[in-house]
Amino acid sequence: MLKLTYLQQWKVRSKTDNQRILTTLIILVALFAIAAILSRGVFLKPSNLLNLVFQNAILGVVSLGQFLVIITAGIDLSVGSLVGLSTVLLMVFQFAGLAGALVMTLVVPLVLGLINGFFVSLRRLPAFVVTLAMMLFAYSLAQVISGGAGVYSGLNGAPLSPALVAFNKQVIFGIPYPAIVWIAALLGVSLYLRLSLGHFTYAVGGNELAAFLSGIPVVTVRLLAYILSALYASIGGILAVARVGEGHPASGQPYLLDSIAAVTIGGANLAGGEGSVIGTLMGVIILGTINNIMNLLNISPMMQPAVKGIVILLAVYINSRKKRG
Amino acid sequence: MRNKASARRLAQRLNPYSAWIVLLVLVAYGAFGVRNFLSQMNLSAILYQYSIIGLLALGQFLVILTAGIDLSQGSVVALTSITAALVMTRYNVWLGIACGLLLATSMGAISGLLVSRTSMPPFLVTLGMMGVARGLAMQIANARPVPVYNDSFIAFGSSSLLGIPVSTYIWVGVALLCLFFLTRRPLGRYVYAVGSSEENCRLSGIKVPSVKLTVYVLSALLTAVGGVIWTSRLGSGSPVGGVNYELESIAAVVVGGGSLFGGKGRIDGVMAGVLIFGLINSILNLSGISPFWQGMIKGLIVLLAVALSQLRTRGGDKEEGEPANA
Fold first, then answer.
1. What residues of chain B lie within 8 A of the CB of A212, using their CB?
2. Does a structural domain hold residue A14?
3. pLDDT at residue A212 in the model
């Protein structure tokens, strides 16, 4: 049997990744074309495109964390609950001033992400179940803190910091702030994957035993993926508060399945080791475009889950055909 | 040294029953520590609710045995219930039930075909089908619940025989059928085999695609049976019902000793897994614990149960490809 060195494996893998990125790009361009035609050009207006980026910044950031976990052959079912928990925490912590609130909001999910990572990487429990338990736990924690309802002010009645309220309306060079956070998150993950530790993420997901035998710190790499996923979910929660000015335990629910869908539409393999940051970005935009088109075309909200389901099936079908080629 | 070895042997012997042990502990705690736990009303309330999840879990178990997963169950419950309720109010009860089962089964057949004939991962196929089934249910029902006016159908859901709900008999009956299928029929044996090693099955001439198709169809069918009972309990078809039922059934299978990587687990373990969740719910409610806290406790219990079940695989056969430092 032909044995590949780690470097060779990586080259082969990146080739299929490149193919997938191309396929995803074609799907994206096709969707844009369909959207432009169906909406008679309204879709391509800069205001609508900006809106697209603006509306999907939260999903974009959350998906990046999900992406890191998925390439380690794991899955993070707790991201939705962590987004919800972060929105609640950010509101409750308003008494500490903006900076204090932000720091404290990031710390709690980080600890929960660490717990996820601990059980998955050190105790070797299945990621699906560990993060399912965390999903229940974090949602329940958010409910206990918020009393199950929306939170509109800090513990001492402090209102939401005006800086955060204004955050959504500000732009640099025409780019809205949430989009800038998204871009920063994209750069962060790309950079992480180029660092020596992050670089190993693919190896761990591709073939854990080989990675372990090559001296790659498998446990640390896994642990970091779950911590980063929680961190990104938390940033997503902060963006959500800036957008709606409310903390709610259930506000993160849609991001769980959407983030997994975005990552896989972007060409990542749930079995690990395959996927790309740029693909994930396109996956998010594809999902966002579908939502955008459905609203532009006045498709009833009742049919929207079905349309989305069919598009997910199509995108995954197109991308999966290349897998064993 | 010898002590350690014999402790491990004992642990191994008890392994297949770890879910039942957890269940026994819960029953003991409920009986002695929680008021009204052993009352007829409470026990049958648990059975009414969890026989439905139990049917879903049996279907989920078949799929999980092949290393697949069925995320569409909750939506299929809603689709079945809407279809059955609509046809029932216009024509007759039996036709309604038949239509519900048929539509659900065809959704399962689509999932099964996509999983077995293409290389699409089950997680995503059934995620897509989850959206499709939900959208379809909403569209058919115009996003409104459909009341059922047939008294005998509604009575069926809350009827009992010898103090035990009829739905529980159905659940146990279906479980016995599944047991027979999995242990006595060639196709059922293949279900375990496919989950253990798909490649070996293919090389041994087992028709892997048809095995996979079968489990997805069966999962949808059992889900639909659960959906019909659910409709009858509710007295109406609801397009928004059944949300997250798939997570409950997956959790029950895993707590009951199933492995998401396929090929592992037993029917009785799955049933114990379902009852564990039923008892936890009941104990938490009877103890007056706020629903807000319940998620945390359930999360911890899921984690504990899985940690326990993992302990046994590590004590017993070491899985291939497991790094030495694990």
1. 323-325
2. no
3. 85
